[in-house]
């Protein structure tokens, strides 16, 4: 039974001091989970060399983390509705911290991959209920501000990840990339136990078979997307795709009639929720297309060094960080559909401007275009979060929170896979094709966002 004060906190948000402590705990957790994808990418060559493994095999250090996160996000989100978001969040922080220590102590590639698997599961628990926790921490009138702060944390982590990893590798070994999470994780757990509020719990139970089907369905989907990006043969891709489709069919059949399905098809019947999720997937696909393809253009076509490339990519992330809290506050007063539509129109035009770069662009030529894209992306994120969470009833906040993180990861995976396809079409024009697709995805996302102005939220 939930304590009356806890239930009140879940409805009306926390007092300012407790809110700051709770937000700090969430920020550390989300920051660590977001950072660990970027830093692992940067460190792969060093890790592969020290563990005496091949570059191709070392890719599993990244792939297993992403696969574990996507496969377990929705089960943890559903579990949060039943046992409380607070418990799931604290469990995720503790598991992520312990797995980070295991990563730092890994002595071989298999041991590191297993540790990264558990780290991904911990990250899924953190991210799966993160947005729902924000809804309990901030009062309704400040939800946009809370989502803006969350977007700021993700943007900063994304921006500083590669640079931080490079600095750490310059002075010490790769193990410290993971060891640095341990004191941060311990602090986050202590703060979470002190300040995270309880929430009213759902009366239904978690079905283990449904959770297992969800894990296999999304795990196989991400595996298929990843293998397609690495140009595996159809003899391998087709069985993976069929297996994923079968698992999704069994999942939908198993959860049919459930009051709170783990794969939240009930929420997708709400036009505002479905359009907001589509907006997120298309927008993060645009981000994936840009961030995976542009480094090839900067280094191979323009002859920039990896360090210079990092700086050229920075304006996008910095402007996202600047715009996120501003857009969050605006979404407390104005329609998320309009704010997101405007931002995504800016993003699409920014992608087009990158297509129109001169043959020998200056740093300024590239910088203002990247900044323009960052402004558009930052203008979308917090309002879209508010739209997704606001279109779901309070009792289904966990499912909605899981969709937020799942949409982001699927969009990024689709973007990365499409970049690989673009480069198979043309090694020299691959970035051009990727930017064209990115502009198209952003335009579709803008239309979807504006469409929310003319649909009514279903009760």
From TrEMBL:
The keyword Transmembrane applies. The keyword Amino-acid biosynthesis does not apply. The chain crosses the membrane at residues 21-44, 56-76, 88-107, 113-134, 146-170, 176-196, 208-228, 234-252, 272-298, 310-327, 339-357, 369-388, 409-427, 433-455. Keywords: Membrane, Transmembrane, Transmembrane helix. It comes from the Bacteria. InterPro entries: MFS (IPR011701), MFS_dom (IPR020846), MFS_trans_sf (IPR036259). It is found in: Membrane. Residues 22-457 form the Major facilitator superfamily (MFS) profile domain. Its main location: membrane. It is a multi-pass membrane protein. PANTHER family: CONSERVED TWO-DOMAIN MEMBRANE PROTEIN-RELATED (PTHR42718:SF48), MAJOR FACILITATOR SUPERFAMILY MULTIDRUG TRANSPORTER MFSC (PTHR42718). This is MFS transporter. It comes from Duganella lactea.
């Amino acid at each position: 039974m939930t304590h009356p004060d806890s239930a009140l906190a879940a409805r009306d948000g926390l007092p300012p001091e407790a809110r700051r402590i709770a937000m700090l705990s969430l920020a550390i957790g989300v920051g660590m989970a977001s950072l660990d994808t970027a830093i692992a990418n940067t460190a792969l060559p060093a890790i592969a060399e020290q563990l005496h493994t091949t570059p191709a095999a070392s890719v599993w250090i990244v792939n297993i983390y992403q696969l574990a996160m996507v496969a377990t996000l929705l089960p943890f989100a559903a579990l949060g509705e039943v046992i409380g978001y607070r418990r799931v969040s604290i469990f995720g922080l503790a598991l992520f911290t312990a797995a980070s220590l295991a990563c730092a102590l890994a002595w071989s590639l298999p041991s590191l991959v297993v540790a990264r698997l558990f780290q991904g599961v911990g990250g899924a628990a953190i991210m799966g209920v993160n947005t729902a926790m924000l809804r309990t921490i901030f009062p309704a009138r400040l939800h946009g501000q809370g989502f803006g702060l969350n977007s700021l944390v993700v943007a900063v982590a994304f921006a500083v990840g590669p640079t931080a990893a490079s600095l750490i590798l310059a002075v010490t070994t790769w193990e410290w990339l993971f060891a640095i999470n341990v004191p941060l994780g311990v602090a986050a757990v202590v703060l979470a136990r002190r300040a995270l509020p309880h929430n009213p719990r759902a009366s239904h139970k978690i079905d283990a078979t449904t959770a297992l089907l969800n894990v296999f369905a999304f795990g196989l989907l991400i595996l298929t997307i990843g293998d397609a990006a690495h140009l595996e043969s159809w003899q391998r891709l087709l069985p993976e795709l069929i297996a994923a489709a079968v698992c999704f069919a069994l999942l939908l059949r198993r959860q049919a009639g459930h009051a709170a399905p783990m794969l939240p098809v009930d929420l997708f019947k709400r036009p505002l929720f479905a359009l907001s999720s589509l907006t997120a997937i298309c927008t993060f696909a645009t981000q994936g297309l840009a961030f995976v393809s542009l480094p090839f253009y900067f280094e191979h076509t323009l002859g920039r060094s990896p360090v210079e490339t990092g700086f050229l990519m920075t304006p996008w992330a910095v402007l996202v960080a600047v715009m996120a809290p501003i857009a969050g506050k605006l979404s407390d007063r104005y329609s998320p559909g309009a704010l997101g539509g405007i931002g995504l129109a800016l993003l699409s035009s920014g992608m087009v401007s990158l297509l129109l770069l001169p043959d020998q662009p200056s740093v300024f030529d590239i910088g203002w275009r990247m900044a323009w894209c960052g402004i558009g992306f930052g203008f979308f994120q917090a309002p879209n979060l508010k739209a997704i969470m606001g279109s779901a009833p309070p009792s289904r906040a966990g499912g909605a929170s899981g969709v937020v993180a799942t949409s982001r990861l699927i969009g990024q995976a689709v973007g990365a896979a499409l970049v690989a396809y673009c480069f198979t079409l043309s090694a020299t024009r691959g970035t051009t094709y990727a930017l064209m697709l990115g502009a198209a995805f952003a335009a579709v996302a803008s239309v979807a966002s504006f469409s929310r102005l003319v649909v009514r939220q279903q009760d």
